[in-house]
């Protein structure tokens, strides 16, 4: 397992796309946060100002984090390098776990950097920062949920790319489900079948990024969806021919 982790770390850090996506996450988050503080007003509750900075990297959706996952597996199929990888490491579950673990580590590192930049922008704008939040476990609980939601988006990109063996689909399909499918269905079914709307994955992902309501329950629903997608990818990767 250690050898597979080292191999995957060298691979993912040598791919230009990893650095490009990471830079996009940080730059887009910083730009959005600058826009938000320039057109908005500070919240009188310091914890909510801090929370605003923490969630900004995911405010446009997590498709850039899905791109990390899609690239980790989809690019191997695209360029045919998966056969070489499996020749070096024949145990497919080990390869799958190594890819997912290393990609998750990179995702968390980029997310933390983007969040630090956003919080710095909020502080530089003169907005008071603090930890005295209420609901959902306060700012500490929110920070944990931000990380887990980002990993959930990663699992969607990783899973769809693994199932379809298509990098682009791993990036685009989560975005389509979140904004093209769920949004109109929420409007149509909001009054007729609210229980169904409450099960939508990305609506719950958004709810998890708040400090009000059942944020942890929403995270649980999104997490289950993410695990299902990743689980299907595991079965596909393990039992289908390369």
TrEMBL record:
Pfam family, one: ABC2_membrane_4
Keywords, comma-separated and alphabetical: Membrane, Transmembrane, Transmembrane helix
GO cellular component entries: plasma membrane
Record field: transmembrane: 20-39, 51-74, 95-122, 142-161, 168-189, 215-237
GO-annotated molecular function: ABC-type transporter activity
Protein name, as recorded: ABC-type transport system involved in multi-copper enzyme maturation permease subunit
Source organism of the structure: Longispora fulva
């Amino acid at each position: 397992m250690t050898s597979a982790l080292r191999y995957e770390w060298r691979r993912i850090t040598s791919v230009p796309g990893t650095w490009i996506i990471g830079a996009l996450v940080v730059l887009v988050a910083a730009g959005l946060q600058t826009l938000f503080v320039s057109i908005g007003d500070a919240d009188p509750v310091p914890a909510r100002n801090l929370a605003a900075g923490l969630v900004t990297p995911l405010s446009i959706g997590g498709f850039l984090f899905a791109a990390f996952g899609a690239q980790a597996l989809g690019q191997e199929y695209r360029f045919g390098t998966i056969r070489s990888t499996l020749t070096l490491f024949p145990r497919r579950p080990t390869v799958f776990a190594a890819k997912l673990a290393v990609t998750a580590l990179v995702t968390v590192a980029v997310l933390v950097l983007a969040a630090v930049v956003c919080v710095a922008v909020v502080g530089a704008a003169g907005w008071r920062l603090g930890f005295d939040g209420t609901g959902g476990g306060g700012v500490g609980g929110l920070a944990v949920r931000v990380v887990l939601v980002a990993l959930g988006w990663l699992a969607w990109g990783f899973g769809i790319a693994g199932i379809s063996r298509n990098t682009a689909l791993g990036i685009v399909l989560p975005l389509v489900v979140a904004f093209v499918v769920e949004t109109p269905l929420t409007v149509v079914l909001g009054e007729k079948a609210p229980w169904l709307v409450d099960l939508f994955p990305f609506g719950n992902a958004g709810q998890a990024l708040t400090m009000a309501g059942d944020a942890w329950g929403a995270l649980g629903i999104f997490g289950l969806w993410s695990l299902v997608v990743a689980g299907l990818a595991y079965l596909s990767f393990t039992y289908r021919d390369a």
